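The instructor's notes for this session suggest beginning with a concrete chain rather than abstract definitions. Hand out the sequence below and ask the class to guess, before any prediction is shown, which regions might be ordered.
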Amino acid sequence: MTAESRRDQLIQVAVDLFSRNGYVGTTTKSIAAEAGVSEAIIFRHFSTKEDLYAAILDYKANQAGVEEWLLGVRDAADRGDDEALFRSFSERILESYRRDPYFQRLMFYSSLEGHAFAKVFQKRRGLPIFDFLRDYVARRQKEGALGDFDPGVIVFALIGMSTYYAIVRRLFGMELLKASDAKVTNTFTKLLLDGLRNGHPAHNSNKQ
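After discussion, reveal the predicted structure:
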């Protein structure tokens, strides 16, 4: 196995164990045993368990094609296509939980244990995306396209609907709906945009 392949294997094994046992409950010895290598091999690639934990961030971002997805999101933002942009975020959230529930569990474990991993992830990925969305909503409000609500609250509504649905379905394993992810995404997008547009004075006056 090449050095790169071995490194990727160790990260994948670590994600699985961290997601099941947490950071504290996972040792480098257990990771080595699961991967079929010695602890020395782990430390050859990662100086500490902390380094291994942090390496998961970049690995997962590259694996998920985050940068390519963001290009499409920015394109929709440049066009002022609210529906395409909101739907893209909803689709992305549902896809991430469907494709990689172990990583999502890892994030929850990190937060519950008070570990810095989740905070680092949010600082590097979550907060920039939140700021981008908030600025986009504020811009569209100034352009008269969306209602005059708190932009930050709107972003939480956009992210929250899809995230909670994904948690219930993918992490809790509760199949409460027979609807496809596409239908769920379309419904969330329509609900949010209809509410934002109906809450705008210009739209309300047009109805009278």
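Then share the key points. The chain has a mean pLDDT of 88. Residues 116-142 form the longest helix (27 residues).
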